[in-house]
Amino acid sequence: MIRVNVLKDGKIVEVDATTDRERFLFDKLGHNDWLECAVTPGMPSFIFTRPELKEFAEKTVRWPTHWDSVETLKECGLLSIEPVEFKGARIVPREFLNSLIEPKLRAKPGDTDVCVMYNTVVGTKNGQKTRVSYYMWDEADPITGISSMGRVTGFPAAISAVMIGKGLIKEKGLVPPEDCIYGAVYELFMRELTKRNINILEVTSW
Fold first, then answer.
1. Domain limits of the chain?
2. Per-residue pLDDT tens over the stretch 66-98
3. Among 119, 106, 196, 194, residue whose Cα is nearest residue 150
């Protein structure tokens, strides 16, 4: 079982991956879809760069029932990487499953992907409890043929590289994004994303 670091009550603790599931309604940016997320391994730099946080977890969003299906495969032993005996041969269950399922997961003509982001931060501002939420729903570009995953990973990296080349990002060495893209640089970064039709909605509630 993969273990993942999260923040609970201001302390770093380990939890099992794919746990702490949440089902939520994504009703922004012209959509109205139920989605489900679960804790997964990632790059949780906030755990170390923002010690004032009390709760933090990085989760992966999927359609409802996805995580239940993964759990079923796991319970059946089909995700195991330990070899087993099968009709006189030794096979790795996960490799066997992959050989069956991978061809069925290949995109067919006209198939596209979707990338969804939902972040929420709760704190206090001027003595009042405040929630700031960020929403993104991005789809593949049918004109260029660039997948949504390619868009939301490639464009931010390219924009950041240009900013470094222009000297707008001045920090040196291995620096997490939240510590080098802020203030005016952050505003410019968001405008550059919008130019590429990657729209992130910020909602503040009290």
1. 112-206
2. 999 999 999 999 999 999 999 999 999 999 999
3. 196
Q: What is the pLDDT at residue 127? A: 81
The structure's pTM equals 0.86
* Residue whose entry in the numeric block shows the structure tokens 């790795």: 92
**Helical residues (DSSP H) of 166-204, grouped into ranges:** 183-195
Residues 6+ apart with CB under 8 A from 1: 16, 17
The contacts found for 52-59 with CB under 8 angstroms, 24 or more apart, are: 53/7, 53/10, 54/7, 54/9, 54/10, 55/7, 55/8, 55/9, 56/6, 56/7, 57/4, 57/6, 57/7, 57/15, 57/20, 58/4, 58/6, 59/20, 59/22
What DSSP element (H or E) covers 46?
Answer: helix 46-49
**Distance of alpha carbon 52 from alpha carbon 67, whole angstroms:** 31
Whether the per-residue pLDDT at 198 is higher than 90: the answer is: yes
In the numeric block, the tokens 């302390």 are attached to 11
Given the structure tokens 């700031």, which residue do they identify?
132
